[in-house]
Amino acid sequence: MARSVLDHSAFRYLLIGGLAFAIDLGLLTLAYRVLGAPLWLATGIGFWGSFAFNFTLQRRYAFGGVVPTGAALWRYAVLLVVNSVVNMVVVEVFERLGWGYAVGKVTVTVAQTVWNYFAYRFWVFGRTPSTKDAVADSLSNIPLEPDRKEN
Description:
Helix content: over 70%
Largest sheet: none
Shape: globular
Oligomer: single chain
Order of helices and strands: HHHHHHH
Strand content: under 5%
Radius of gyration: 21 Å
Structural class: mainly alpha
Distance between the termini: 46 Å
Number of helices: 7
């Protein structure tokens, strides 16, 4: 049972994502608290700073590389832009409401964790079988020799 949990893409996704989140929040805090960058910029630095780590490990270990790297990278970048804007807005709103940027970061990360899993699995790194693949799969199931019944 433990082996099946460890082999599931959701477990690997969460493990890699947790490490990427630590990098993200660490860079955000460093840029905002230590270097004095504006919060929107520090949020972007953290989010984009974990990009290479997250993309590479999610592709290689969590979901596999079914889609060619260039196409997967393009899809990942599109999703990253959308997620970046959502991140910056949510973190800024939480800070302005007095709830704290870190609480906003955790909140938006939880929401993005859910939708990103499905986006990664079915769009960024996964693929929908093409008609060519469907035809090839169905042809591979046709026996080469007719069944012969022995009397």
